Amino acid sequence: MNIDLHIHSTASDGTLTPLEILSLARRLGLAAIAITDHDTLAGSRELLERSARLGIKAVSGVEISAAPPSLCPQRGSFHVLGYGIAFDHSRLNQILERLQNARSERNPKIIQRLNDLGFALDLAEAAELAGGLDGLGRPHIARLMKHKGYVASIDEAFDRYLGHGKPGYVDKFRVPCQEAMRLIRDAGGIPVLAHPGVTLDDGLDLDRLLADLVAMGLGGIEVYYPDHDAVQTARFAGAARRHGLLMTGGSDFHGSLKPEIQMGVGSGTLAVPYTLYEALAAALAARRGHVAASARE
Ligand code: AMP
Ligand code: ZN
Ligand code: FE
Ligand code: FE
Description:
The protein is an alpha/beta fold. 46% of the residues lie in helices and 14% in strands.
């Protein structure tokens, strides 16, 4: 029995709705899933409302665009996953709204840069392809560039124009990673370091970084991920044991925006065991018990 705890829906930059994700997950025989959209709870909330009756386990989720910690000099975002968060936590919702606003304020600036580079495209066309302005970001602009024949693939759009440091790149607000983790904890959830094999440079002192992040509230690490080879997977699993972290895993499925990645199996060989879901659910239940007990004291 396998699971997939890293899935994007139409609420951010995935191309399937939460309901379509749920049907596909059932067809694939996945035992548990989480929708972890960028900086929004809307898709995850819908999944949890609908999954209860359908015999598939679901845990609430989000992927927060954080600023990297000082130990981690970085290109771009530091993604922090949050599992088991309460949807109605007001500070978390406020910060997510600020991050969404930062994304939507950036989009016209990116379009302007692309126009200056000679590409004829506008925001309305991107929104039309994306099914609206909500959650619209670089992946949708990349898709528009492909649609118009300016690039051959979404990857090419990022590699040449939209990626960090490229001519169409515009920076945006990111929440400090310590604050992202504190908010996830406050909302009853567990913060997890997303795709460390992608986020972290190879030469980085992983144990030092994880010690720092654990002190800030980190509770887990995404060990299983399509881009992680066997050596990385073993390295991150070892680090999880040493630092007392939960292990999670998922495909980072985005539907047709990342056609090479399939739900559940990633690029073909991913297999995230159900026991990881059980450990995560037990840790969340223990947290809730603890919170309830301290409320009684
Ligand atoms: P944005 O929210 O506008 O900053 O877009 C971020 C999202 O773009 C990421 O979470 C990925 O889904 C996607 N992305 C970032 N870099 C790349 C890349 N090099 N190739 C393809 N997709 C990317
Ligand atoms: Zn994405
Ligand atoms: Fe990510
Ligand atoms: Fe993701």
